């Protein structure tokens, strides 16, 4: 079967590799669509980061480069390994793409398996990936979805769950609360969409006019301001009931000035959730944090959030179609996928990849 194989930075090859077979307790999935993630781009430009090297195997998967890429994917069950009785061939599914040690509690009561030692992801550290025709995945990480959800939209559920977990990390937010999202990249947009589906008024701060437009069109924001043209802090205060600022803010850029704006824009006792991955240290005005009693919280990926995210999508409160801005074949992964997202990222949110040309008809 065809697969996108990561060898090293700037070295991804479309190759023929053997088809997987499902082992005991595994599900064989025929992949329908796989999204290109910002993490994939970082691996291509600067990696290996999550991906193993040629000489150093990942401590859990045991695999070295090359590995198959792709962790944002949807598909249809083609076969079941022994011991699986609660799924059927033909079911539509998405994957929570974790690679986690066997001795870690990954049950429904766990809230920290995503923080366990050597945690990594299917499609980055081995065990196949969604940028291929088929993948075998342990039952624990496979989530059934309604056949009413188109499989292309289902491929966006994984990054949407990142946003869902970020909102969950913010704690209780009464309907009518005001949230400020810093940055309208894919995760900022999806976080805003989750917030609005929960009845929260969303303000997005974003320099790019195209991204601000997308935020409003896609239903990710009620208001979208350019910090180069507008005093975002003042606008947020005008929108808040008592003029004191946003109830919560989400940092989705890893840009210092954005973090500074969020600290100024939240009300006293407000919350700031750091969603982006920072490649360098940030500076924080601790006096403002103290004097406003701001809660500053981190968030990474998701933990037991997929079921609730899927229910939200199935409820119809959130439309994922506007976030899909391109569909390509696997053979065009670099030229039409990575190149667009690296060099023309204002024009794209989520580009989906398929190995089946019929999906593009």
From TrEMBL:
Question: What Pfam families does the annotation carry?
Answer: ADH_N, ADH_zinc_N
Q: Which domain of life is it from?
A: Bacteria
Give residue ranges for domain Enoyl reductase (ER).
7-330
The record's PROSITE patterns line, in alphabetical order, gives: ADH_ZINC
Record's keyword terms, sorted: Metal-binding, Oxidoreductase, Zinc
Please give the InterPro entries that the UniProt record associates with this protein: ADH-like_C, ADH-like_N, ADH_Zn_CS, ER, GroES-like_sf, NAD(P)-bd_dom_sf
| Gene Ontology molecular functions | oxidoreductase activity; zinc ion binding
- Cofactor(s) required, per the database record: Zn(2+)
Family in the record:
Belongs to the zinc-containing alcohol dehydrogenase family.
PANTHER family named in the record = GALACTITOL 1-PHOSPHATE 5-DEHYDROGENASE, SORBITOL DEHYDROGENASE
Q: What name appears for this protein in its UniProt entry?
A: 2,3-butanediol dehydrogenase
Q: Which organism is it from?
A: Rothia terrae
């Amino acid at each position: 079967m065809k697969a996108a194989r990561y060898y090293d930075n700037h070295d991804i090859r479309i190759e023929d590799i053997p088809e997987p077979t499902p082992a005991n307790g595994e599900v064989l999935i025929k992949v329908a669509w796989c999204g290109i993630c910002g993490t994939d781009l970082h691996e291509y430009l600067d990696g290996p980061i999550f991906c193993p090297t040629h000489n150093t195997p990942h401590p859990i998967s045991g695999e070295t480069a090359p590995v198959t890429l792709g962790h944002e994917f949807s598909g249809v069950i083609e076969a079941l390994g022994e011991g699986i009785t609660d799924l059927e061939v033909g079911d539509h599914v998405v994957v929570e793409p974790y690679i986690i040690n066997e001795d870690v509690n990954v049950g429904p009561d766990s809230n920290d398996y995503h923080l366990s030692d050597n945690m990594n992801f299917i499609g980055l550290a081995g065990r196949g990936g969604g940028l291929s025709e088929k993948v075998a995945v342990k039952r624990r990480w496979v989530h059934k979805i309604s056949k009413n959800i188109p499989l292309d939209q289902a491929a966006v559920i994984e990054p949407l769950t990142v946003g869902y977990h970020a909102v969950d990390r913010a704690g209780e937010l009464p309907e009518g609360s005001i949230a400020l999202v810093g940055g309208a990249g894919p995760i900022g947009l999806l976080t805003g969409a989750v917030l609005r589906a929960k009845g929260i008024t969303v303000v997005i701060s974003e320099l790019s006019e195209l991204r601000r437009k997308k935020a409003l069109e896609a239903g990710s924001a009620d208001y979208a301001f350019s910090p180069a043209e507008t005093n975002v802090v003042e606008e947020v205060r005008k929108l808040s009931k008592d003029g004191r600022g946003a109830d919560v803010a989400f940092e989705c850029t890893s840009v210092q000035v954005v973090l500074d704006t969020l600290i100024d824009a939240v009300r006293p006792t407000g919350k700031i959730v750091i969603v982006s991955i920072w490649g360098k240290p940030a500076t924080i005005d601790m006096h403002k944090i103290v004097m406003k009693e701001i809660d500053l919280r981190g968030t990474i990926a998701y933990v037991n959030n997929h079921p609730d995210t899927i229910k939200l999508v199935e409820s119809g409160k959130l439309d994922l179609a506007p976030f899909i801005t391109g569909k390509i074949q696997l053979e065009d992964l670099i030229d039409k996928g990575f190149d667009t997202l690296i060099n023309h990222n204002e024009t794209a949110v989520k580009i989906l990849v398929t190995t089946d040309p019929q999906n593009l008809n």
